[in-house]
Amino acid sequence: MIGHEVLLSSKDSTSRVLPILKEGDRYRIQFESAFEFVPEDLVTTIDKVVKETQLAESYIVEVEACDSNEVIYSFKMEAVAKSDIIPCRSRVQEMACYSLLFTFMEPIPMEPERNIWNYLFMGLLLLVVILGFVFLRKKRTRYATDPNLIKLGKYRFDKRNAELIIEEQRIELTSKEADLLLLLYNTANKTVERDVILNRVWGDEGDYIGRTLDVFISKLRKKLEFDAKVKIVNIRGVGYKLVMDK
């Protein structure tokens, strides 16, 4: 009930946390949907829950990418007044599929009558509920449901408002730039001839000259420079194509 209400408050009524897996001395928490996170917020949230539930005094957390099984972020908390945490709030980890791996090094002693496995399960359950609230941001739902938002690598192309969005930055496009980018997106990885582009974007307006297209392509390239995997390639003597590397 609590988890359901927390997810609803973040406007996510469909995502869920998958069952916790025990792998040797580690516990793996998996998520149904992709998410993005700020490392410093991740550290603060996890440590708060671990302390409140008294799961352990010393532990290690690793964030693993699902597609490559690569650990892209990790930290260690110890009972003494030191840790391996390096705050990095300015760098938001991009939206992707991640798993959280927990290693508890020194569990806090408990009364003999307390069932340690039930206690561990309840603590981890509370942890994933709070993580769900932190990670599943409202804008993820918006990106998934708004037909006017198009994913271009790390960017979101808002064709209705003629904007490129990357992280928290919004880059304005002119109407012609937006029309040109939409045409290239709809024919991604295919060459579009110069005459076709000029006719589709400028039509019979008669307000363009031979170099107009090249100028607009140059402006779009500048606005797409934050993601090297999204490129507008010049096919010499033919036209242009939008290339999006996987």
What does it look like?
This protein has 2 domains: 140 residues, no CATH class; 99 residues, Arc Repressor Mutant, subunit A. It contains 7 helices and 14 strands. α1 runs parallel beside α3. The chain starts with a helix and ends with a strand. The N terminus is likely disordered.
Task: Provide the descriptors you would attach to this structure in a database record.
246 residues, alpha+beta, Arc Repressor Mutant, subunit A, 2 domains, five-stranded antiparallel sheet, four-stranded antiparallel sheet, 7 helices, 29% strand, elongated, disordered N terminus
Map the helices and strands.
Layout: H1 2-9, E1 21-23, E2 26-30, E3 35-37, H2 39-53, E4 56-65, E5 71-77, E6 93-96, E7 98-107, H3 116-135, H4 138-145, E8 149-152, E9 155-158, E10 163-166, E11 169-172, H5 175-186, E12 192-193, H6 194-201, H7 212-223, E13 230-235, E14 239-244
Antiparallel strand pairs: 1-2, 2-7, 3-6, 4-5, 4-7, 8-9, 9-10, 10-11, 12-14, 13-14
Count of helix runs? 7
β content, as a range? 25-35%
Described by the principal axes of the CA atoms, the overall outline is elongated
Distance between the termini: 39 Å
Order of helices and strands: HEEEHEEEEHHEEEEHEHHEE
Oligomeric state of shown chains: single chain
Low-confidence spans: pLDDT under 50, at least 5 residues? 1-12, 81-90, 110-114
Compute the number of structural domains: 2
Average pLDDT figure: 76
Strand order in the largest sheet: 1-2-7-4-5
Number of strands: 14
Biggest beta sheet attributes: 5 strands, antiparallel
How large is the radius of gyration? 24 Å
Backbone structural class: alpha+beta
Report helical residue fraction: 25-40%
